[in-house]
Design goal:
This protein has one domain. The protein is 25% helix and 22% strand. The N terminus is likely disordered. The protein starts with a strand and ends with a strand. By secondary structure, the chain is an alpha/beta fold. Helix 2 links the parallel strand 6 and strand 7. The protein has two helices and seven strands.
């Protein structure tokens, strides 16, 4: 069964690609003057104490979504009721973000500023 994907103008083999909603057809995001005009950008907020979760998310993206840009964010701040939860009542450390960023690079993922 061949169908046209809503994400890109290419045709996908639905039997071969079991990832509903995502197309593995090769296409490039269009960037003009440093601004993404089309394509997919995923923003991932790295959370304190959850580097292993970030590894899992990034690994899943690598395995399941083709040709996507990723913005790794490190600006988490404990606000509002975060003080009620010890796990998130602190800022992200430089080492935590560096560790996630290194995993990102090892996977060969592309950032939004590539």
């Amino acid at each position: 069964m061949v169908k046209t994907c809503s994400i890109c103008p290419r045709k996908c083999n639905a039997d071969r690609d079991k990832r509903e909603g995502f197309c593995k057809a090769p296409w490039e995001p269009m960037i003009k003057n440093g601004i993404m005009q089309k394509g997919v950008l995923i923003r991932h907020l790295t959370m304190p104490g959850l580097t292993e979760d970030s590894f899992a998310v990034l690994s899943w993206i690598k395995a399941n979504i083709f040709n996507v840009r990723i913005n790794l964010m490190d600006q988490y701040r404990p606000e509002y009721k975060a003080s009620e939860f010890d796990e998130i009542n602190r800022r992200l450390t430089h080492l935590e973000f560096y560790t996630v960023d290194e995993h990102f690079k090892q996977l060969g993922l592309r950032s939004d500023d590539d």
